[in-house]
Amino acid sequence: MVLNNYTSTLRSAELQDFLKTLQSGGLVLFPSDTVWAIGCDATQPASIRRLYTLKNRTPQHPFIILVDSVDMLKEYVGHVHPRIETLLYFHNRPLTVIYEEPRQLPKELIAPDGTVAIRVVQDDYCRGFIQALGKPVVATTAYREPGQVPRHFGEIQSDILSGVDWVAKHRQKERHFEDLSVIARLDEQEELEFLRD
Q: Under DSSP, is residue 7 helix (H, G, I), strand (E, B) or coil?
């Protein structure tokens, strides 16, 4: 495996453990580009179903998908509007966008209205392991619903810690994390609509 400038921010042993866990269908706990998240390989339906169970959540409220680049995004979405693409390049905060026309993704990640929520990550750590995996990663906040978003690693509940197969060491001692991502979509008039800011 060739490690580029993104994956070089990851320790080699940690990266190998992360990849091995995801490739074998496991769940991982990691610091995303927003908050601590539980994740899995976004192309493995069994892993996604296991994540729904751990989160006590139904497929009517599907998870966010993380990709490493706009190029990867375009592999899984039929069309990226130029306005959205421009926003992705220039938006300063992590931005999750709701897209129509998903493709090559399990039905477990597609909302009842046929859309998916995808974020191009801005954090080198996240970008590195997604790029190394070569596929999108599911990400959902590390708490069971209903619950409170953990502000740092120390606030993650024990049932979450025991329910995953691998836990990242990166940023465990930090006590400040970013807010949840902004969520946006294009409305019927092709105007940007911010669902969470």
A: helix
Sheet holding 166-167, edge to edge: 166-167, 28-31, 36-41, 137-141, 64-67, 116-120, 95-99, 182-186, 192-196
Tens of pLDDT, residue by residue over 79-117, are 999 999 998 988 888 899 999 999 999 999 999 999 999
Question: What is the C-alpha separation between 35 and 176, in angstroms, rounded?
Answer: 9
Q: Are 74 and 80 a contacting pair, CB within 8 Å?
A: yes
> Cα separation of 107 and 128, whole Å?
26
Measured CA to CA, the distance from residue 82 to residue 7 in angstroms comes to 29
Q: Name the one residue in this structure whose structure tokens are 């970013």.
A: 178
Expressed in percent and rounded to 5, the helix, strand and coil fractions of the chain are: 30, 20, 45
Give the other-Cβ count within 10 Å of 67's Cβ. 24
Which residues, in sequence order, are bridge partners of residue 185? Answer: 193
Cα-based distances in Å from 80 to 74, 107, 133, 152: 7, 20, 23, 33
Reported pTM? 0.90
